[in-house]
Write the structure tokens for this entry.
Amino acid sequence: MRIIIVASLVASLSGCGLDEQPAEKSNTDWEFLGNSSEMQHSSSLKAINRDTVGALGLAWWVDLPVSDGLVGNPLVKDGIVFQGAPNGQVIANDVKTGQLIWNFKDENAQQGSSFAGYWGRRFNRGVALSGSNVIIASGDCRLIAVDQRTGKKVWEATSCDSADMYAITAAPRVGNGLVFTGNACLDTGTTRGYVDAFDAKSGAHRWRFYTVPDDPSKPQSALYENAAKTWGKDWYSKTHGCGSAWDAMTYDPQLNLLYIGVGGPAPFDPSKRGEQAGDELFTNSIVALDASTGEYKWHFKQTPQDAWNYDSSVGIMVANITVNGQATRAMLSVPKSGFAYALDAQTGKFISGGAYMPMEWASGLDANGRPIMKREGQYWLNDAKQYMQLPNGLGAHGWEALAFNPDDETVFIPAMSQPTLVKDDPDSALGGQSFEPVQRSADGQYETYGETVAWDVRHNSVKWRSRLPMPTNGGLLHTAGGLVFQGTGDGRMQVLDAATGKTLWSHEIGGAVRAAPSTVMLDGEQYVLLATGTGTGTAAATGSLNADSASAPKARTTPRLLAFKLGGVKDYPPFAQVQKVSAPLTPRQPEALTALGRKLFEGSGCIECHGLRGNAAGGRVPNLIYAPPPSYDFFEAVVRQGLLSKAGGGMPAFADLTDDQLKAVFAYLINQAWDAHEGKEPLAGTH
């Protein structure tokens, strides 16, 4: 009788659809960067899949009330999309329609900021959600919590002193009731890096972990005394370490660990740092901390004797992977160096790793995961005053989001090849070197391009590659529909087959992309959200130090937020109209001044905001080819007197340039504009 009853019940339930696929949730959120604390940028949604993606279309798009294209991963909670913008601005839009709900603007910019503090306010990589708050870094060393419903400030906390060479450029990370943030030193080596933890509800400071040792003449803990021994002889007279934890951090809720990626030392040339240095801890390392206390647990050194700016502060996620047939909690890291790593999340032990892009500095990894360096890549040991760097200082992978397929344990990497001729330049503010991008070498050995790379973690091998015309593109999103979504620098969104890399769908979307997409279900429909538009002239947004490698001129458009869904019929937003460069108001300047002017423009750090040759991608930072200074008097008032500086938001004064130096920079910019007007280099951008 019992068997008959059970059989009847099964038959009854089958008639109700038990054999069919369970319906997806009618509404979902995307509350964390990457959709979870583990930062996997993966979603279980599959309404949009290999079979249906052909029907993908635009549901809506809106212009955003910001100057610079946004590069953070849009977060979604309770039907609201939250995004961060430069200058501590937070925007909330309705996920169904795109309608602006509120717009928070920070009115408390710090006065007297260093160049780093000013530079930090030029961009933002996103926000964090915790409880009822949305939390953003202002750039000039502050965290600001805003109420998710009202857009009103809840609390503000200071993490660093922006009058020193500090800035905060990353989205905060959250976990276990805390919010975590690091800082950036702009590769100057003048400050000591660290990570702070604050109470997410109140903003109260909880702990601090320094990433490098202090002045060796001062008493410090055994951890830092031992770390100082790895910096070599007389190191502190040449650098204060830096070691910025400027972006990548991931909280592991299973182990209550915070994994941080630490940047490199400065200056870049090891011969200009401590003599007979070792690992210079904890630079270029992954460090695991107790998330509740900040206590050091373990570290893994990725790039000893870093001479190339191969930071570890990019591309960290946590995942369960298979090792020798056993499920293992792993920390996956894809730093700038061109290698990818799998480490035991609890111990930091090396599991596997290998190269995912071509490189000039190393030939592989040894059994312990240490790079096997090429002699020709160790330029400081050679007589040559210049060398070809590959990857360049922006990395084979930058801070753009990785994605992960938990089913087959594949990491998807937005990769880039940007060979760069590096020359010794003691006067340069950027690590004592100057940089000349190479689009394609005469012998064809070196080429600039982008790729989406699928790294099979189980087999420690590259599964497939998908070539892109521009090296710098957007972050990635993987979904259970078997798809990988990505926006591109030339203004497209593409959808790849996660198994093969084949392009299944692609469409021009009217703006360049560096952000990673997010996806949610709303009223039974799957939406994909993506931010587009022009960026600053820095490496932060859609315009990098070399804007022409980061965004096509036509794709430098008004910042926008786009939403895609199956059956979407909204017309796509337009591209920009490329404008001809007008003749400058000032006549050509003596050519004898331009060589010095270029050296000063690059070496003084001007390219950090205005881009190479002044060809910024747009946004609040002017493109100095389209808008060269109208006169020397105006230029002098802006640069040396800070004419445009206001409330911490405009360009600050740079009073240390002499008259002769300033005239040389002026001459360089005027002649660059004349060259562009006459159809010569540099290539024209847009307003």
